[in-house]
Amino acid sequence: PRHVLRRQLTKAGELGFSCYVHPEIEFFLLKPGPEDGSVPVPVDNAGYFDQAVHDSALNFRRHAIDALEFMGISVEFS
User: Where do the GS catalytic domain residues begin and end (predicted)?
Assistant: First the structure.
Protein backbone atom coordinates (compact mmCIF):
# COMPACT_ATOMS: atom_id res chain seq x y z
CA PRO A 1 0.00 0.00 0.00
CA ARG A 2 0.98 3.60 -0.55
CA HIS A 3 1.22 4.43 3.15
CA VAL A 4 3.91 1.76 3.57
CA LEU A 5 5.88 3.28 0.69
CA ARG A 6 5.50 6.79 2.09
CA ARG A 7 6.68 5.66 5.52
CA GLN A 8 9.74 3.92 4.08
CA LEU A 9 10.58 6.90 1.86
CA THR A 10 10.45 9.13 4.94
CA LYS A 11 12.75 6.78 6.86
CA ALA A 12 15.16 6.58 3.93
CA GLY A 13 15.17 10.38 3.65
CA GLU A 14 16.01 10.69 7.34
CA LEU A 15 19.02 8.45 6.69
CA GLY A 16 20.16 10.67 3.80
CA PHE A 17 18.89 8.54 0.94
CA SER A 18 16.93 9.78 -2.06
CA CYS A 19 14.57 7.28 -3.63
CA TYR A 20 13.10 7.39 -7.09
CA VAL A 21 10.22 5.03 -7.81
CA HIS A 22 7.76 4.50 -10.63
CA PRO A 23 5.29 1.83 -11.65
CA GLU A 24 6.09 -0.87 -14.15
CA ILE A 25 3.63 -0.97 -17.02
CA GLU A 26 3.02 -4.55 -18.09
CA PHE A 27 0.47 -6.06 -20.42
CA PHE A 28 -0.32 -9.19 -22.40
CA LEU A 29 -1.51 -9.36 -26.01
CA LEU A 30 -4.11 -12.07 -26.43
CA LYS A 31 -5.99 -13.47 -29.41
CA PRO A 32 -9.70 -12.78 -29.52
CA GLY A 33 -11.46 -15.91 -28.47
CA PRO A 34 -14.71 -17.48 -27.45
CA GLU A 35 -16.31 -16.23 -24.28
CA ASP A 36 -16.85 -19.71 -22.92
CA GLY A 37 -14.26 -19.38 -20.17
CA SER A 38 -11.45 -20.80 -22.30
CA VAL A 39 -7.86 -20.11 -21.38
CA PRO A 40 -6.56 -16.91 -23.08
CA VAL A 41 -4.10 -17.53 -25.93
CA PRO A 42 -1.15 -15.17 -26.65
CA VAL A 43 -1.02 -13.59 -30.12
CA ASP A 44 2.37 -15.22 -30.72
CA ASN A 45 5.07 -17.30 -29.06
CA ALA A 46 7.73 -14.60 -28.91
CA GLY A 47 9.26 -13.74 -25.56
CA TYR A 48 8.94 -10.27 -24.03
CA PHE A 49 12.43 -9.18 -25.13
CA ASP A 50 12.39 -11.25 -28.33
CA GLN A 51 13.14 -8.99 -31.27
CA ALA A 52 12.44 -11.58 -33.96
CA VAL A 53 11.39 -10.13 -37.30
CA HIS A 54 8.31 -12.37 -37.35
CA ASP A 55 7.00 -11.15 -34.02
CA SER A 56 3.40 -10.20 -34.79
CA ALA A 57 3.24 -7.93 -31.74
CA LEU A 58 6.24 -5.84 -32.79
CA ASN A 59 4.16 -3.10 -34.45
CA PHE A 60 1.85 -2.90 -31.46
CA ARG A 61 4.78 -2.59 -29.05
CA ARG A 62 6.35 0.15 -31.18
CA HIS A 63 3.05 2.06 -31.25
CA ALA A 64 2.58 1.59 -27.48
CA ILE A 65 6.11 2.85 -26.77
CA ASP A 66 5.58 5.90 -28.97
CA ALA A 67 2.30 6.66 -27.18
CA LEU A 68 3.87 6.30 -23.72
CA GLU A 69 6.80 8.53 -24.64
CA PHE A 70 4.41 11.11 -26.11
CA MET A 71 2.70 11.22 -22.70
CA GLY A 72 6.05 11.77 -20.98
CA ILE A 73 6.46 8.20 -19.72
CA SER A 74 10.00 7.01 -20.41
CA VAL A 75 10.47 3.46 -21.65
CA GLU A 76 13.73 1.83 -20.58
CA PHE A 77 13.20 -1.64 -22.00
CA SER A 78 10.97 -2.87 -24.77
Answer: 1-78
